[in-house]
Design brief:
Blueprint (H helix, E strand, L loop, with lengths): L1 E6 L5 E4 L4 H14 L5 E2 L5 H10 L5 E3 L4 H11 L4 E6 L10 H9 L3 E4 L8 E5 L6 E5 L4 H10 L7 E6 L5 H13 L4 E4 L2 E4 L9 E2 L4 H13 L5 E4 L12 H4 L5 E6 L2 E6 L7 E4 L7 H10 L4 E4 L11 H11 L5 E2 L5 E3 L17 H7 L3 H4 L2 E4 L11 H7 L2 E6 L1
Parallel strand pairs: 2-13, 3-12, 4-5, 8-9, 16-17
Antiparallel strand pairs: 1-20, 1-21, 5-7, 6-7, 9-11, 10-11, 13-15, 14-15, 17-19, 18-19
Length: about 400
Amino acid sequence: MIATVKATSLHDAQITLPTSKSISNRLLLIRILCGTNFDIRNLSDSDDTAVMLAAMRSDLSLVDVGAAGTSMRFLTAYLATARGQHTITGSERMKCRPISILVDALRQLGAKIQYAEREGFPPLNIEGTDLAGRTLALQGNVSSQYISALMLIAPYIRGGLTLNLEGKIVSRPYISMTLNLMRHFGAEVTWTGNTIKIAPQTYTPHDFVVEADWSAASYWYAIAALCRGKRFALRGLSADSLQGDSAVSEIAKMYGVSTHFDADGIEIVADGSAQQQISYDFVEQPDLAQTFVVLSCLMGIPFKFNGLESLVIKETDRITALTDELRKLGYALTTNHIDTIEWHGECCTPSHEPILTYNDHRMAMAFAPAAIVCGPIRIDNPKVVSKSYPNYWNDLKISGFFVENKE
């Protein structure tokens, strides 16, 4: 399926954003560890959260997470502690996403995990058992989901867990989110320097209301930046968010977009005061990178973005995907294919071919605003947005976009 996206008559709009899948998935793991079915209001309706919810309602003997990376990491850690024989698998892309760092860490705690196919990658065969606590050393530049997965199960590990994070820590706000949620449910966690300590204990159940997703808000910041003077009200966001991607409100200032908070959420509007050149380190907000790489090109703003090392192991190699797909729109980016993307204003001949998403929800959502500048664009596999923002295309229509899907 291909979606044709046109920016026909954009206007002010009020949008109800999806709720945070990052918070939702952590809550689901805490709830099953609690053993008490406390109420989670506004649980995310994303594919990733649906996978977690379905798995936890099953007998856990065979779990298929599809393309849900967070679910793969969190459930692997949980299944290592859950009595019984389990197999966890996923999509073909998931089978190419490394998981050896987490498996090695769990094995050091006594986990019984075997690779079902290829060494270092899913699927996994797991025999749940009691884990014994110790001190683990992990490189800080690994996926924060590995670290969060270990943290979340740590209260239920005999003897607790100490994590020493070595070197540069990436996606630090996601680790902070995990820590704050654990504390909300009564767990004592200390994070001093690069050391996280968690004693053996239990979570205390509490009802919880999930906040709106700041990552999803980033696409509306891009639209606002390209539609000077148009106002977009985004419901459910707050200034004291648990989410590191709330930094989007600060990053957007460089593109001339201001944020006004009220009791229901935020209103964003651009005044045209964008910087002429931008540099930024996305090490703490890697999920925002695609939004601002595409937006910078559309606004003609040369940029250098680094801190992108985790992008190559996401739903796709996002660094390569961005450079390949932006070339179709006439923008020639340069990259070291490790952690940096740059654009110095170089252009190339646009091909007008459909934008490929590589089964990556953020590729679809980051490129849709290009219709404002480039005219009608076609985006392959538009349904992929259901991974985190199922109502994205309908919300675009609310603000005046035309979206048509064809097989």
